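Protein 1 of 2
SEQ + STRUCT:
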Amino acid sequence: MNTLKNIIKTSLKAALPKPALAKLKEWVIPDRYIHFSGGWASDVKFNEDGMATAHNADFLKSKTFIAAYEAGCATESWGPRGQSHIRWRVFNACTLAKYALRIPGEFVECGTNRGGTAAAIISYTHFEAAGKKFFLLDTFSGFDASTLTEKEKQLVAAGMGSRYPDCYAQVKAHFGRYLFVQIIKGSVPSTLDEVHAEKIAFLHLDMNCSAPERAAIEYFWDRITPGGVVLLDDYGWDDHEEQKETLDEFAASKGVEVVGMATGQGTILKPYW
């Protein structure tokens, strides 16, 4: 049988140009076979949310992470359960949050929506034992058009805005049991002064628009503890180039760089100097 397969493969390689052969493989080869720059890789470990890799992904088997991700899924932040997954992005958020837990300062998330990432972080880090506050900021009803660029308005009109219906009641119901969580409703930057925190260890920006994210990082930067984390959810994603551009400009003005990640996220670690 293997001999026959090899004959077929050899014949196809000889008969078809490389672009046609690649397209044929896309049609007939399962998802676990993916074409990377070095060739076709079998036994792909991860393939979702715009990212595929044959590298180690054993966090997917971690009971701690599985429980944390399930806590995030319970908020239906990423649609009904099973509809879509962003596991590697959430894992990055959880592990960076766990690191930041040892740094003096509170946690702030601008762009919470239904709270999936925050819920996962709380579970993964056992946040209730940390003695910190977790501030969650959002309109909880989608975009504030007055803060959007023309391109961002076009994306919202094309459908991005429909992903964010009003969810304030659900967020209050879900997070109201946590005394350490403070929910702040309204549009950034007008609500930033409601974050009463002298020091910040972890800042997560996930607002899908450039001006509020630039305003937030400028507002909080001096309060971020050296060694603290800034996690940018949309940094490398298509259609979010304006966010990347303005956040790169900000980072350069502070003498730091954003570390781009294969998940589309970006990370800044506040330097000690």
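Protein 2 of 2
SEQ + STRUCT:
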Amino acid sequence: MRIHFYGKMSTFGGPHDHGVRASEGLALVNDYTLPHYSQYFLPHQPPGTTGLARRLNPNTFYVACRWDHHATPYHSLACVLVKVTNPANGRSAYAKPIDWGPHERTGRVADLSPGLASFLGLRTDDIVEVKYN
């Protein structure tokens, strides 16, 4: 399995992300698989929300990309961490694939957790590289 994305990024997830619906779920996690991803979630559902996207812990390191379902089936992504790098400063960290996105019309290749973006020194529309091989 080889993964490589390079381009603009944005952030998503957590109780304060009003860019996702209060009921929005995640492509790679559901109620059945949630125990395998528990370290990426807040212990309780935020008030007024029902979706896992709002329950994400924004301080943990997770990522969403438009994964190729044939090359990287969801079950294989559950077993890996991908390397996420800010090419402008060389800083990198490992993150858990957690969702599919961002939408193609945004022109972005990845959505990062706010904590990961902060750690890497990235802001919305900065360039990011996501790799696994």
